[in-house]
């Protein structure tokens, strides 16, 4: 994923430079700034820390130290693992659908956290079984 991100930036910088040459300076600057914003979004999801503690689940970006998802223990009604299809959620990354939230990073198994209010939060990582077990232990 990191290689793809850096490849994207390299290509975008080249297109931005070509755009500045052919279309004017403002096109090149705008395109380059857009590239930087997209790169920051990609990096924020590239490396995450998933933590389960006595207070619940927290998922943070290791790069920018931004909290991507948080589910307090008091809001968790149940935890299960189910098959996950990224296309049904609109792809990978941070997704919302009908009040539910999914953080789809890697894998085909989602840890489904059903909340007391009827909504769900999904976390899709390779270690879904370990995450599910850890969450069930704090309930």
UniProtKB/TrEMBL annotation:
Transmembrane segments: 26-52
Keyword Membrane set for record: yes
Keywords, sorted A to Z: Membrane, Transmembrane, Transmembrane helix
Protein name: PH (Pleckstrin Homology) domain-containing protein
């Amino acid at each position: 994923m990191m290689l793809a991100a850096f490849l994207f930036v390299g290509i975008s910088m080249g297109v931005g430079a070509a755009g500045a040459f052919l279309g004017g300076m403002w096109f090149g600057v705008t395109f380059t700034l857009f590239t930087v914003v997209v790169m920051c979004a990609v990096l924020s999801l590239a490396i995450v820390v998933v933590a389960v503690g006595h207070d619940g689940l927290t998922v943070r970006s290791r790069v920018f130290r931004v909290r991507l998802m948080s589910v307090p223990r008091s809001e968790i009604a149940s935890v299960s693992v189910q098959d996950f299809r990224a296309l049904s959620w609109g792809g990978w990354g941070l997704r919302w659908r009908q009040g539910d939230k999914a953080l789809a990073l890697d894998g085909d198994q989602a840890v489904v956290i059903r909340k007391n209010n009827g909504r769900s939060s999904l976390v899709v990582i390779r270690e879904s079984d370990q995450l599910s077990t850890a969450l069930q232990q704090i309930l």
